[in-house]
Design a protein that fits this description.
The complex is a heterodimer of chains A (about 120) and B (about 110). With about 120 residues, chain A is mainly beta. Chain A has strands at about 5, 10-15, 20, 25, 30-40, 45-50, 60, 65-70, 75-80, 90-95, 105, 110-115. The mean pLDDT of chain A is about 95. The chains are: A mainly beta (about 120), B mainly beta (about 110).
Chain lengths: ~120, ~110
């Protein structure tokens, strides 16, 4: 079974607007963590944000915030005030248990920011 | 710090050839992993290591070998390349198994097997 599901293969967003990228996950482990990575066209993987399963508050990092809904098993990434440089592929990933070095990735969502 | 480095950046192999993808990190990270990225499938874990001398299989280990003789290096060996191994390969390292520590990724190696 797919552990991470990203249902939006591609999205367009207008510059300066907010965009929400969906991510749902499947695990029976009570301890898990959710990561978002950005992959620009140059190919490198850039860490954006992390949410632990026991964290009480939603994670935020600058213009990135994670809308964590534990009961629904969703961890959506919100990018506020989109910039042209946000155009990239975005991956949601999960570690289960305490093993941060073993991640399961979703298929990714391509975001294109329009001027 | 150079971070995580990978060589080569690009490689073309013929079916049946063998080769080693190199990965090195200078951050003294205990944990290192290899992933492959295929279109529409995200990244999948091939092998990982929790320290020098300790390796284990990930989700898609068939056709690949690894070893970890030093903390810094974690090479990935393709024993007999197959077209199904055409992919982009990423090496990653992380400081700790404690939750929240991000994995640092190398720039990737794009491998084509003909």
């Amino acid at each position: 079974a797919q552990k991470i599901t990203q249902t939006q293969p591609g999205m367009f967003v207008q510059e300066k607007e907010a965009v929400t990228l969906d991510c749902t996950y499947d695990t029976s482990d009570p301890s898990y963590g959710l990561f978002w990575y950005k992959q620009p066209s140059s190919g490198e993987m850039i860490f954006l944000i992390y949410q632990g399963s026991y964290d009480q508050q939603n994670a935020t990092e600058g213009r990135y915030s994670l809308n964590f809904q534990k009961a629904r098993k969703s961890a959506n990434l919100v990018i506020s005030a989109s910039q042209l440089g946000d155009s990239a592929m975005y991956f949601c990933a999960m570690r289960e248990g305490r093993d941060d070095y073993k991640l399961s990735f979703g298929a990714g969502t391509t975001v294109t920011v329009r001027a | 710090n150079a971070g995580v480095t990978q060589t080569p950046k690009f490689q073309v192999l013929k079916t049946g050839q063998s080769m080693t993808l190199q990965c090195a990190q200078d951050m003294n990270h205990e944990y290192m992993s290899w992933y492959r990225q295929d279109p529409g499938m995200g990244l999948r874990l091939i092998h990982y290591s929790v320290g020098a001398g300790i390796t284990d299989q990930g989700e898609v280990p068939n056709g690949y070998n690894v070893s970890r003789s030093t903390t810094e290096d974690f090479p990935l060996r393709l024993l007999s390349a197959a077209p199904s191994q055409t992919s982009v390969y990423f090496c990653a390292s992380s400081l700790s198994s404690r939750e929240g520590y991000e994995q640092y990724f190398g720039p990737g190696t794009r491998l084509t097997v003909t």
